[in-house]
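User: Quick sanity check before I run a bigger batch. Here is a single chain. Can you write out its predicted 3D structure?
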Amino acid sequence: MQKIIIHQISLSPDALPEYAMQKAEAEARKSGVNAKAERICRVSVDSRKKSDVKTVYSVILECGSISDAQIRSLNASPFCEPVIEIKRGKGKPGNIAVIGFGPAGIFASLILSENGYDVTVFERGEDVIKRSSSVDRFISDGVLSTESNVQFGAGGAGTFSDGKLITRINDPVCSYVLKRLAEFGAPESILYSARPHIGSDILKTVIDNITTYIRKTGTDIRFKTRIDSVNEYSDGIKLRFSEGEEYYDAAVLACGHSARDTYAMLYENGTALQAKPFSVGMRIEHLQEDIDRAMYGQALDKYRGYLPHAEYNLSKRCTLNGVERGVYTFCMCPGGEVICASTEQNGIVTNGMSESGRSGLNANSAVCVSVFPSDCGSGVLDGIEFQRRIERRAYEAAGGRFRVPVQTVGSFLKGKANKPSNVIPSCKNGFVLSSDNSIFPGFVTEMIGIGLNDFGKKIVGFDSDHAVLSAPETRTSSPLRILRDQFGRSVSNKALYPCGEGAGYAGGITSAACDGIKTALQIAERFAPKK
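Assistant: Done. Predicted structure follows.
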């Protein structure tokens, strides 16, 4: 029995999904193919024509014999379920450490533990329940834990940024990641939504379920344990932490993009690192109703309740002072809120999040500008210092408190004082009105202005005087890469396997999880499981 995917099944937004399956079967019959619809595998909204907004489906069909010509005539493609193949090594049984319990570390642990490997996980932050309490305390009282916060702890930074699963990588392993997340409690909609998300409220339960499951396989997960040193030892690796030292055959390093002290430790140990481009910027908030209206037009009223909150993805490239840069929107959160995501005592960082219902009044998104290593200095760690300077200036602009500096777009673009806005800043940590654009280097401020003007031509009202900007967004990705070879090992430590966002090889939950899986498979090819 063959399976194919029929694409571009367009229906009215108020049509039942079952109609898409029936229409796919009918299309197949027209081409002489007897097929039965199995399930919908993708749903998106096409709002390019505001007068004719459609919901677009892709449907998996089971069919008998089908020719390549018939597949092409149906605008279809072959479908195969993703399979994770473990090629087990024939060497000694692997005693594996996993450093970090974000998406890369979680999925590396999951694959290895399910296949009989002796795994120990080290996570500097707390489990998801205690971590949530630490974050709540930070929001309510401004008391920051530098070890367990919005960035550090079970689930990684994604736990408090909506659980967005959108990725640009075209890899069948992505489907496996989504399937496993659904098994652990994520909504089934992630299996077919074109813009899948879990929501921070549900994601906490998902992470807790995964933690419980991995522990049941015999894996030791140690929260509140930061690794302070990683060194080669004989043909393995030695890890040092506050409780002492331990030795492993290999270690997965999945530390996340904000583990600055870990980067410094690796640099001091002589681990091969390389500066790479990243981006910084601000978060912009609009009323979600205004974004919905701009994206859907009159269809919003006709199909209200059937259309999801509108999302956008905008970008522009231009040459500024002889350097070509990009300015783009990133991590868009419909019906969400801006959060303070600091990890250091004297710095402000923002991020965006939303819960599963996305029921908040505001839409928010980062507006980010490309930053190159040459903008930061000549040292491999200079990108971190570039980020840190911005974060500290924001902290000063906030009066030395964890309050987010905010200004209206009208103030930012026109250099005038902030005026009353119908967009109320959503950050629960609190905010201060500030027109201090010296938080950023000049090229960042100028490029954000160019972007806002351009985006206002693409989405009506995007550059409205009433829109609100919160500063700064500095942790979009790692500013450096931990170099690794074709086997996934650090080029300077053959027992160390860097992976995920923190190693500079992923950008988001799904791609980081995929990289964690591939790293686990590379380890499995080298070592045998425990008996």
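The domain at 2-78 is CATH 3.30.70 (Alpha-Beta Plaits).

User: Great, the batch can go ahead then.
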